[in-house]
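Collaborator request log, item 7. Partner lab (contact: R.S.) asked for a structural prediction of Glutamine ABC transporter ATP-binding protein to inform their binding assays.
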Amino acid sequence: MIIQVTDLKKNYGDLQVLKGITTQIAEREVVCVIGPSGSGKSTFLRCINQLEEMTSGRIVINGHDLSDPKIDINKVREDVGMVFQRFNLFPHKTVLENVMLAPIKVRKMPQDQARQQGLALLKKVGLEDKADVYPEKLSGGQMQRVAIARALAMNPKVMLFDEPTSALDPELVGEVLTVMKNLAREGMTMIVVTHEMGFAKEVGDRVIFMDQGVIMEEGKPADIFADTKNERLRSFLGRVL
Ligand code: ADP
Ligand code: MG
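Returned to partner:
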């Protein structure tokens, strides 16, 4: 198990957003998280990535207990890459510079090595010909692929995706999902919050249905998307499928 989450709770003031999440993610597993807006999906990812501090519970990533006061949170965070709905690339840096930045700044990687790696990653996401252009010249789908390359540049053990295609025009969704699919095939451990049920069915090893701050259902895609008895899941799927 590369990620173990035990009774994770998160409050914002009086609002309890995560009400006790327990799950494990195995190495090389692709877990798709679905559920209605406001159910706590983003908060769940943000707790795993330490963008939010949990209120209580336990998260262990690759053997590191996040609540252990002695651990170096930044080191653990380096193992976890994240891709958001919006790409937030640095606008005044070229595509290649965007991908090179973190390894140089955080890992102290030599410039040449970072460049080689950056070019290889851009090739992987099909954008080697865009290395020297600025983000404003890219389509949303291309920007999101750069964002994926940038996250991969830190050589993470796990990749978290928070609705990576939700902000894209429909015709650009496929190219991003293809890159994610290839990544999954290569054995990357991934947690993907998505409304792309086709992707969840085809690529997901497991689907987690979150609702009102809890994991309401969890299982193999075939079982989750089959005729479920759970009324809330059924109604959610009725709305998105
Ligand atoms: P989802 O990603 O499933 O749409 P979120 O995790 O974004 O859900 O949000 C779950 C709930 O937590 C929502 O009610 C949202 O308004 C609330 N929430 C999220 N972030 C914050 C925050 N920083 N402060 C207060 N409330 C928040
Ligand atoms: Mg969200």
